[in-house]
Design brief:
Spore Coat Polysaccharide Biosynthesis Protein SpsA, Chain A, 7-stranded mixed β-sheet, globular
Length: about 240
């Protein structure tokens, strides 16, 4: 099986080389990796560091201007040649060692299956993940959006907004994806479910970064857009 790992990058000069090192070191029996990095118009040294890195087999594509995470992921999907596609953020929140755990359920499963890495099969952790009111709002917002996804689309999901989404390439070849920003998460979820794909969830642990470290998600703005996206694609394609 060939796995295309798509890494959207925007101003991640502090973490990108560590992330590429971790991705490059991941080895999964019976799985060939394809690493696709899409620099989304970074204004820092991210692109330079990727171009001059020591890692082999990195396929770099660039946007001249910043367009958003969804647009970068769509560029990566267009270039992907793998049987399956995985989204990997360029920060260090998600541990690439979990990729093997995401792959495991599909090795003996049918092709109408996607796998999500869920961070939220748990209560709030006020000592770590939800250590500030702002991060607790992220937790509540994601739980609410995931609940609404479950109600609208008829399958229980605990973490619709997770970065770690693994799905067959053929599942998205016929989809018209429109999202340019973080609304990619609800759009791809809605369209997979509407086309009869089953989403399995695998528990993962993450190391959330703060806004001073470069976190870009806006709880209210992006949450409102995500809600509208879920409603829109429930009734329209």
């Amino acid at each position: 099986m060939k796995l295309s790992i798509i890494i959207p990058v925007f101003n991640e000069e502090r973490t990108i080389l560590k992330l590429l090192s971790r991705i490059s070191s991941v080895k999964i029996a019976g799985v060939e990796k394809e690493i696709i990095v899409v620099d989304d118009g970074s204004s820092d040294s991210s692109k330079f560091k990727i171009q001059n890195s020591k890692f082999k087999g990195i396929n770099l594509f660039s946007h001249r201007k910043n367009q958003g995470k969804g647009a970068a992921v769509r560029t990566g999907i267009e270039r992907a040649t793998g049987d399956y596609i995985l989204i990997q953020d360029a920060d260090l929140e998600y541990n690439p060692k979990d990729i093997a755990r995401l792959i495991a359920p599909i090795k003996n499963n049918n092709s109408k299956t996607a796998v999500y890495g869920t961070r939220l099969k748990r209560l709030p952790n006020f000592l770590r993940d939800e250590r500030t009111p702002r991060f607790f709002l992220h937790y509540l917002g994601n739980r609410i959006l995931s609940l609404l996804t479950s109600i609208f689309y008829g399958q229980w999901i605990t973490d619709m907004e997770t970065c770690y989404k693994l799905f067959p390439k053929k599942a998205v070849e016929m989809l018209r994806l429109n999202s340019k920003r973080f609304d990619f998460e609800p759009e791809i979820t809605a369209k997979l479910l509407k086309r009869g794909y089953r989403i399995l969830e695998v528990p993962i642990k993450t190391h959330p970064r703060g806004y001073k470290e470069g976190k870009k998600l806006n709880t209210f703005k992006d949450g409102t857009i995500a809600l509208w996206t879920l409603i829109k694609y429930r009734f329209f394609d």
